[in-house]
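tool=predict chain=A
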Amino acid sequence: MGADDGYRFERISPTPERMREHALLLRTAFPHAAHFTEAYLAWEYAANPDGIVLGYDAYRDDRLCAHYATQPMTARLFGRDVRGLLSFNTATHPEHQGRGLFTALAQRTFRDAAREGYEFVIGVANANSTPGFTRKLGFQLVSPLHVLVGIGAARMPASLDTAFERTWSHASRTWRTANPRTRYYDGAGALTCATDTPLIKAQLTCASWPDAARHSSAFGLAHPLTVWMGLAPGVRWRGLAVPLPNRLRPSPLNLIFLDLTGRARTLPAEHVRFDAIDFDAY
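tool=predict ok
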């Protein structure tokens, strides 16, 4: 059976009714992801100052069966400030898996995105979803994200030679740190937040965020260990840190990239700056 057989495809509209459907499907597909509430999706899908969600839903008999969403963003790509998309929420109801719905939704999303002037899609995929992005949709596997844990903090040179770096305006910074599921702390030259692991905080940036909606002091002694994940040329650790072994990670996190301009551009991993704040890790 092909993806088009018996399914109706609709572009996502972030109305309260549709977001109730999205929240239910996401929690069905990911039972432990309690943060998928209507309020959280309203923040993700409708409040972003860079634009509302772009993606598609698949219905059968007026029941939502699959969902794929991307989030508008801006980035400096090969020396130019351009519009792009962050690939983030995707879910298929267990009764409708294996029918090519994810690929069908993504292809429709990228077709519309290219027509509307978006130049790229970037995302972080786990081990299970990476082959679908690379083999079926043509994404480049840029690199697994680096993960360091230790005492101290990650730091970067003031001047970086980057082929890709997400850019944040005052409005987008304020929106990003208004995430209803997380409280952020801006202090000691970095934006941080708690993790699900006691004693460990996550470092989301390698610089202070003066526009953070929840500007506060740093954690201090309650969270003596710090985890940082991302890609960055010239990153250095101030203190003592070690790479987190793969066996201790829930899944490898792979940075993936798709050029929507038809020029088949790829990203050199050694010239990419990508922090946890740049995707929906926390």
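The chain has five helices and 15 strands. The chain has two domains: 8-141+253-278, 144-248.
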